[in-house]
Design a protein that fits this description.
- The strands form six sheets. Strands 1, 6, 8, 9, 10, 11, 12 and 13 form an eight-stranded mixed beta sheet that branches. Strands 15-16-18-20-21 form a five-stranded mixed beta sheet, covered by helices on one side.
- It folds into two domains: 2-206, Spore Coat Polysaccharide Biosynthesis Protein SpsA, Chain A; 226-288, no CATH class.
- Helix 3 (78-85) crosses helix 7.
- The relative contact order is 0.13.
- Strand 20 (276-281) and strand 21 form a beta hairpin.
- The mean pLDDT is 93.
- The protein starts with a strand and ends with a strand.
- It has eight helices and 21 strands.
- It is an alpha/beta fold.
């Protein structure tokens, strides 16, 4: 289940142009990255929920991944409600849930295998933090004993939730029609003594929900895919000899001016005018974030 129905308010004004699932990260959209990763591990069913600019999300998803199901929400149902609404398309059993604005180099096969091995009612992917820090607290056996401000026992270490969960069938049966997966499902389950487990992820993680973190996620992608310090998409127009450092120029985009262009993302079809530093160019006016 790919959670892609949010309004993207923290990412405005970018989400006034595109819904958050369709913002480009490197050479593809965030949604395409997540669905491709899930497809690669052989998920038998994939559901994407949509609300804000839902028709755009539907068209983009089905154009690249015709086998996915789209669960369109006319009213926002929250993460728990969205998962409940998609029950028929998902089928029975445990479900991997991935928030589309959370990107990282985690191993999906390992997450699912560890969930089965741990035998939890739900499993959360987390990054370790000091005791008392982060949104999650764990006891010495790795069981979740704190979520947000709610605690059921003393914790041995803190952690931060990365927006990836495996929700077991027992908790799926308790999903409300509208509500939050953490506040309305996992916290009450923890209070009842349910077996909530955590898997620690030590690699990269980006929450692309703000312009600054979105820029950083793109620059991290560039480190892996731009050996010359920049990446230029098909059909983009960049003057010969223009000084560029850590720049992504999307397909069909144009760059003008004397430069330099540094730490920038130019969206597909957009026009950037240098000099420019630490900016996202989604149309013609740059959004400077760093």
């Amino acid at each position: 289940m790919v959670m892609a129905a949010g309004l993207g308010t923290r990412l405005r004004p970018l989400t006034d142009i595109l819904p958050k699932p369709l913002v480009p990260v490197g050479d593809r959209t965030a949604l395409a990255e997540v669905v491709a990763r899930v497809t690669a591990v052989g998920a038998p069913r994939i559901v994407v929920n949509a609300h804000h600019r839902a028709s755009q999300v539907r068209a983009a998803a089905l154009a690249e991944f015709p086998g996915v199901a789209i669960s369109e929400e006319h009213d926002l149902l929250g993460t728990a409600g969205g998962l409940a609404r998609a029950a028929r398309d998902l089928g029975a059993g445990d479900v991997l849930v991935w928030n589309v604005d959370c990107l990282g180099d985690w191993d999906l096969d390992r997450i699912v295998a560890d969930h089965v091995a741990l035998g939890g009612d739900a499993t959360l992917l987390v990054q370790p933090r000091a005791r008392g820090q982060g949104t999650v607290g764990l006891d010495s056996a790795g069981k979740v004993v704190r979520l947000r401000g709610d605690r059921t026992a003393d914790e041995a270490t803190g952690a931060h939730s990365l927006g990836v969960f495996v929700i077991g069938a027992s908790l799926r049966a308790r999903l409300p029609p509208v509500g939050c997966l953490v506040a309305d499902v996992l916290i009450p389950a923890m209070a009842r003594g349910a077996n909530l487990r955590a898997i620690q992820h030590l690699g990269s993680f980006f929450d692309i929900g703000t312009p600054r973190s979105y820029l950083e996620a793109n620059l991290a992608w560039l480190e892996r895919h731009g050996p010359d310090g920049h990446w230029i998409g098909p059909g983009a127009k960049v003057p010969r000899g223009l000084a560029m450092d850590r720049v992504i120029v999307g397909s069909g985009a144009s760059v003008h001016g004397p430069g330099p262009i540094e730490r920038c993302i130019v969206w597909p079809g957009a026009t950037a005018v240098g000099p420019l530093r630490g900016a996202i160019v989604a149309q013609s006016e740059p959004l400077t974030v760093a």
